[in-house]
């Protein structure tokens, strides 16, 4: 049990719509990272938040945005959805210290864009 | 940018045998490598990690080997069990928790 939860578990959206995915990090973790995992592939880093500030971003367009709240929970927002955005979206939290790099992943949100 | 990839997409082993899953990386700046296990419908689960200044690290039934000369990483699972069946990913980290994952290897354990 990692303690990282995500909601919803599944979601179906239409091309052009907007979506918000949510993540609750493990207790005591101040760093949250989001990944996109297409079917049959490894996760791709989207961005990371550390103490409510974006702390790094992967090769994703600006229509992928995020937030981190004071309780370190996080949201991933995707605007103008495209068919290729269909994927499993994973959230991972970590303590944010140099002593521990371990990231704890949630179960993911399966997004289908039609 | 960094690229982390795997040699074999599918590995089938007999229960009780040892499994070896391989991974190659291209960016020698990575200072930390991790192996994850992902079961169907679940997020990746941490198995074992190794820092770039180490060659070998052992855990419970698992061993990770790092060969920096040829930029190769391997995961050895001893006495493979049916519960080990999953997709295994290696990942590299050179920017502080921003992981670059390989494409994954599916491990199938035959009873």
Strand element count of chain B: 11
Q: Mean pLDDT of chain B, as a whole number? A: 88
Rough outline of chain B: globular
Percent strand of chain B equals over 45%
Quaternary structure state of the chains depicted: heterodimer
Question: For the CA atoms, what is the radius of gyration of chain B?
Answer: 13 Å
Uncertain runs of chain B: none
Q: What is the tally of helical segments of chain B? A: 0
Characterise this structure.
The complex is a heterodimer of chains A (114) and B (111). With 114 residues, chain A is mainly beta. Chain A has strands at 5-7, 10-13, 19-24, 31-37, 44-50, 53-57, 64-68, 74-78, 87-94, 104-105, 109-113. In chain A, the strands form 2 sheets. In chain A, strands 2, 4, 5, 6, 9, 10 and 11 form a 7-stranded mixed sheet that branches. Chain A has a 4-stranded antiparallel sheet with strand order 1-3-8-7, with no helix packed on it. The relative contact order of chain A is 0.33. In chain B, strands 2, 4, 5, 9, 10 and 11 form a 6-stranded mixed sheet that branches. In chain B, strands 1-3-8-7-6 form a 5-stranded antiparallel sheet, with no helix packed on it. Chain B is globular, with a radius of gyration of 13 Å. Chain B contains no helices and 11 strands. Chain B is 0% helix and 55% strand. Chain A binds chain B through residues 2, 4, 31, 33, 35, 40-45, 48, 55-56, 58, 90, 92, 94, 96, 101-108, and chain B through 4, 32, 34, 36, 41-46, 49, 89, 91, 93, 95-104.
